[in-house]
Design a protein that fits this description.
The protein has 181 residues and is mainly α. Helix content is 64%, strand content 3%. Helix 1 crosses helix 3.
């Protein structure tokens, strides 16, 4: 028999956009759906096996699973929001407030993948690489011909460096997007 807290974990995670997006894009491989279904039980066990968890610890645990199982880095802080909700459900469960948990579950919003933003880092990396090679060749040709482009080598911004590193490592990054009106 499933516990009410277990049901709360399942409903919370199944309504979490980053997880649903990762599953819809099969970022966890061909068994993404099975991983999604397995995820709540692991999170529930994490609560039972650890005392006095705070949202940061739970968020770190959730983020680790998203990273290792779905190759997804969550950068919109929604993992901390989900962790806070789960900690609240756990406290309510421990206090025996089943009606309160049921009431909050009924009010919980359903996931909406329309708010997810796909960042196509593959094309950006290809474009950046092409531009850098072109710039370097132009500078090399000008230098060999005795000319000077007047420009030094272009330094990559921290964001560009991180994107190149993430892409090289095979990561998929979910960034917080702007809300459209």
């Amino acid at each position: 028999m499933e516990s009410l807290f277990g049901k709360a974990v399942e409903v919370t995670l199944k309504n979490w956009n980053p997880l649903q997006f990762a599953v819809s894009q099969q970022m966890g491989g061909h068994d993404s759906i099975a991983k999604r279904d397995w995820f709540p039980s692991v999170v529930e066990d994490f609560f039972y096996k650890n005392e006095d968890l705070d949202p940061d610890e739970v968020a770190d645990f959730i983020a680790t699973i998203m990273d290792s199982e779905f190759n997804t880095l969550v950068e919109d802080d929604s993992d901390l929001e989900v962790a806070s909700v789960l900690c609240r459900f756990y406290r309510l469960s421990e206090a025996g407030e089943k009606e309160k948990i049921q009431e909050e579950l009924e009010k919980m919003p359903k996931y909406n993948l329309d708010s997810c933003v796909v960042q196509d880092t593959e094309n950006e990396v290809e474009d950046d690489t092409h531009e850098m090679v072109t710039e370097q060749l132009t500078e090399l040709q000008l230098h060999e011909n005795g000319g000077d482009s007047g420009q030094g080598e272009r330094e990559l911004t921290e964001l560009e460096k991180q994107q190149l590193q993430d892409e090289a490592d095979g990561w998929t990054v979910q960034r917080k997007g702007r809300k459209r009106r």
